[in-house]
Write a structure and sequence with these properties.
It contains five helices and nine strands; from the N terminus they run αββααβββαββββα. By secondary structure, the chain is α+β, with helices and mostly antiparallel strands. It folds into two domains: 39 residues; 156 residues, no CATH class.
């Protein structure tokens, strides 16, 4: 082999080594960029919806409910439960002694919460009192507005047979405020006959007034 041929091979090998090293460097840089992108993606994930700026601060921090049913049919009604003792007595009158109910009351801080007992009659075992809305209206004095309606559960929801028996259905509703709770509560319940019962409760004094309207009252007036 001539000296020139040998030099050509050596130069070619050196060039190949240099090219390979350059490719490896680029690969390392590419890997670093990908890793940085992954971190940036994690940090830029959207915040939970609760952290988005609200359109209006109504003071309502959270609302929680626990549903119930029992074998005592009840007229559509709403009761303000201003203390733990009052709430426990209300539950005892309806023989609702399960831990889920007592724990719900025990977890309530009455200084910044409003606790309501809603009830009505279901036509059969697969009926429930469904809570529809919990909002606050503020026209000077904040009012807690609650709407509920008696409805028949689907087979998937109830998981039980549709026995023809009148039952009591209801909800315990707790509204927790960021600071002072609402001074009044307005509750609307649509019963299984389609009659709407509206009840206004003064939180401070626990006074109440009731209005009824709907198909039943319209028929009476006819």
């Amino acid at each position: 082999m001539t000296d020139r041929s040998r030099r050509t091979i050596l130069c070619g090998a050196a060039g190949l080594i240099t090219l390979s090293a350059g490719c490896l460097d680029e690969a390392d840089v590419s890997d670093d960029v990908d890793g940085t992108d992954d971190v940036d993606t994690d940090e830029s994930e959207p915040e939970p919806a609760a952290s988005d700026a609200p359109s209006e601060d109504d003071g309502l921090e959270a609302s929680d409910t626990v549903s119930f049913d029992h074998n005592q049919p009840r007229e559509a009604d709403a009761t303000l439960l201003p203390s733990a003792d009052r709430a426990r007595g209300w539950l005892a009158d309806r023989e609702l002694n399960g831990e889920r109910y007592t724990a719900f009351v025990d977890e309530t801080t009455f200084d910044d919460s409003v606790l309501l007992g809603l009830e009505a009659t279901g036509r059969s075992l697969d009926y429930e009192l469904a809570l529809e809305t919990v909002t606050v209206e503020d026209d000077g004095d904040p009012t807690l507005v609650v709407e509920a309606a008696v409805r028949r559960e689907s087979d998937e929801e109830s998981g039980r047979l549709s026995g023809q028996q009148l039952i009591g259905v209801g909800q315990l509703v707790r509204a927790t405020f960021d600071g002072e709770p609402a001074t009044d509560a307005s509750v609307t319940i649509v019963d299984s006959d389609g009659e709407s019962i509206q009840k206004t409760l003064a939180v401070d004094s626990a006074s109440e007034s009731t209005e009824a309207s709907g198909s039943a009252s319209d028929a009476d007036g006819a």
